[in-house]
Amino acid sequence: MQILKVENISKTYGTKKSAKEYIALRRISFEVKEGEFIGVMGASGSGKTTLLNILGSIDKPTTGRYIMDGKEIATLNKNQLAEHRIKNIGFIFQDYNLLETMTLKENIILPLALKGYEANVMEDKLFQIAQDLGITEVLGKYPYEVSGGEQQRAAACRALITNPKMILADEPTGNLDSKSGKDLLDLLTFINKEYKATILLVTHDVFAASYCQKIMFIRDGEIYSELYAGDSKKKFFDAIIEVMSVLGGEGK
Question: Which domains does the chain have, with CATH numbers?
Answer without folding.
Answer: 39-60+78-247 (3.40.50.300)
